[in-house]
Amino acid sequence: MQAYLTLTRRDLGAYFLSLTGYLVLAAAMFLLGLSFVDLLEGLRKEPERSPVTELFFNKGYFRSILLLTTPAITMRLFALEKFSGTFETLMTAPVSDLQVVLAKFTAGLVFYLVMWLPLLGCIYLVRYYSNDPAALDVGAVGGTFLGITLLGGLFISLGCCASALTRSQTAAAVLTLAFALALVLPSVLADLIQTQTAWQAKVLACLALPLQAQDFTRGVVDTRPVVLLLTLTFFFLFLTLRVVESRGWK
Amino acid sequence: MSDELMIEVANLTKRYAGQAAVSNISFSVRRGEIVGLLGPNGAGKSTTLRILACYLPATSGTVRVAGLDVYERSDEVRRRIGYMPENNPLHHDMRVREYLKFRGRLKGLSRKRCRERVDVVMEQCGLSEVSRRIIGHLSKGYRQRVGLADALVHEPELLILDEPTIGLDPNQIRSVRQLIKGLGAAHTVVVSTHLLPEAEMTCNRMVIMYEGKILAADTPENLQRLMSSTSQIVAEIAAPAEALKACWTQMPEIEGFDVSPAEGEYFRCALTPRNGMDLRPWIFALVRENGWVLRELTRNRHSLEDIYVQVTKPEEEEEG
C-alpha cells in the first residue's frame, strides 16, 4: 500500500512539474469555456427544457475533450519511464507489477478529474445567470461527474495499456487516440444517421460509448452502462498488467 | 554455505531472440567482497547484472541472492539489493532530497526512518550542499552520486552498480571509486566496468567476461601474475648496440628481444622474459657493472585487451 501511494503521488506530482500537464489543463479549460459560450448563445436564442449538463454533453466539445486530453495524460505514464530508463530502477525496487499499474492509472485518473473541475464553475455560472434552479440539480451534476469519471477511467486505462506497449510517447498517444476513436466513432455515426428507427442507428447506439453515458447527465444512473464501462476499464487494466508482466516471461 | 555466499550463479544463460547474451556462466560472491565484472561492451555484463537485480528473467540456470532465488522470491531479493543501472536513469524533474525520499518510501522505509536514511546517504555521498537542487540541473558527477545514494538509501546487503564511472571526468571518477571502496566495509558490492585499472583499484576479485562467457575469475594480483608470463620489459640504455645484443643473446632468461635506436646515443631494448620473470634488478646490475647509462626501465602493464588475448589464447590453440 505504501509503495502504491508513494508512486501515485510521484506520478500525479509529475504532471504538475511538466509543461504537458499545464498544456492539457489549459486546452481542456479552453474547450470547456468555448462549449459553454456556444451553449449560452443557443439558450439565449431558444430556451431548452433539458438540463444544462445534458446540453453540454450533447455538444461535440465533450467528446473532443475526452479524445484529445486522455492520450496526452496517459502517454507519459509508462513510455517516458521506459524511454528514460527509470522503469528499470522502478521495477528493481520492491514493488509489485500490480501496484505500478494501479498507481499510474490512479495518478492519470486523478489528474483527469482535476482537469474537469472547471466544469463545476461553468455550471455554477449558468445557474447564476439563468435564475432557473430547475435547469440543473444536484442529481444531474452528480450523474454527469459519475459519467465523466467512468468514461475517463476507461480511456485512461486504454491509454495506460498503449503507453505500456511502447517506449515512444508519440506512439503511445497515437495508439490511444486510435483506440479511443474506435470507441467514440459509433456515437458520431449514430448522430449522423438521423432516423432513430433505422436498424443501423440502433446497432450504432448500442456500440456508442459516450451515448451509453448520456442518461447520467440527466441524473439517471442506469447500471448497464456502469457495468459496461467498469468491465472495459478492468479489461484494459488487466491487459496493461499483462504487458508489464511480460518483461518477466521466460 | 549460503550464509556466507551472497550471490550464487549457476549455469546462467540468457538469450535475446535466439542470440545468447550470456551463455552458461557460473560464479559466486561471498559476503563483504567487492567484485568487479570486467569486459568489453557486449560481453554480457549488464545482462548478468539485470538478472541479478530481478529486472530480467534468466532463460535457464539459477541465480540466488542471499540464498533466495531471484525469480521465485523476487520481492524479497529486491529488498536486499541496491541497484544502479547503466547510464544511471533518474527523474530529472525532481529535487535531490525529494527524489531520495521518494525512493526510500518506495523501498518500504517508514517516514521517520526514510528521513534519517536520506540524511545519512546524502552525507555519505557528498550531496548535502545540493539537496534542494533539481536533479536535471546537476553535473554528471553529482547525478552519479544521486544514483549511488538511491541504491544505498534502504541499507541493502548487496549493491549492484553497472558502470558507475562511465562518462565522468578523472576527478569525478576518482571520487566515485573512493566512495565504492568505502562501501565495501558494510556491503557486498558487484560493480561492472570495462576499465581494468578501475577494477584493480576497487575490487577484491575480478570476473572477466567476454562474449557472454567467463574467461577468468580471480584476485587482481593473481590475474596480473597470469599476465606477467608474457609481460615485456623496456630498458633504454646508452651502450654500443652490438654489446647490448650480445648480452641479451647470452642470457637464458630472455626469450626474445628487440633493440632499436632511440634519441641520442640511447638504444631502446624490448625484452620478453621467459616464464614471466622480473628481470629489472638483473638489468640494473648489468648496466652498473658495464658502466653504461640507464634512463628508463619499465615493465609493461597489460591492458584489458592483452588479458582477453591471453585468456582466450589456449582455447584458440585447442581449436587450431
Number of strands of chain A: 0
Helix content of chain A: over 70%
Order of helices and strands of chain B: EEEHEEHEHHHEHEHEEHEHEEHEH
CATH superfamily of the largest domain in chain B: P-loop containing nucleotide triphosphate hydrolases
Provide a count of the helices of chain B. 11
Which spans of chain B have pLDDT < 50 for at least 5 consecutive residues? 316-320
Q: Low-confidence stretches of chain A at least 5 residues in length (pLDDT < 50)?
A: none
Question: Any idea what the radius of gyration of chain B is?
Answer: 24 Å
CATH topology of the largest domain in chain B: Rossmann fold
Give an account of the 3D structure.
The complex is a heterodimer of chains A (250) and B (320). Chain A is mainly alpha-helical and 250 residues long. Chain A has one domain (2-248). Chain A has twelve helices and no strands. The two termini of chain A are 28 Å apart. The mean pLDDT of chain A is 86. The longest helix of chain B is centred in the C-terminal third of the chain and has 16 residues, at 304-319. Chain B contains eleven helices and 14 strands. Chain B is elongated, with a radius of gyration of 24 Å. In chain B, the strands form three sheets. A six-stranded mixed sheet of chain B has the order 6-7-8-3-9-10, sandwiched between helices. Chain B has a four-stranded antiparallel sheet with strand order 2-1-4-5, covered by helices on one side. In chain B, strands 12-13-11-14 form a four-stranded antiparallel sheet, covered by helices on one side. Chain B folds into two domains: 5-226, P-loop containing nucleotide triphosphate hydrolases (Rossmann fold, 3-Layer(aba) Sandwich); 232-299, Alpha-Beta Plaits (2-Layer Sandwich), CATH 3.30.70. With 320 residues, chain B is of the alpha/beta class. Chains A and B meet through helix 1 and helix 5 of A and helix 2 and helix 3 of B.
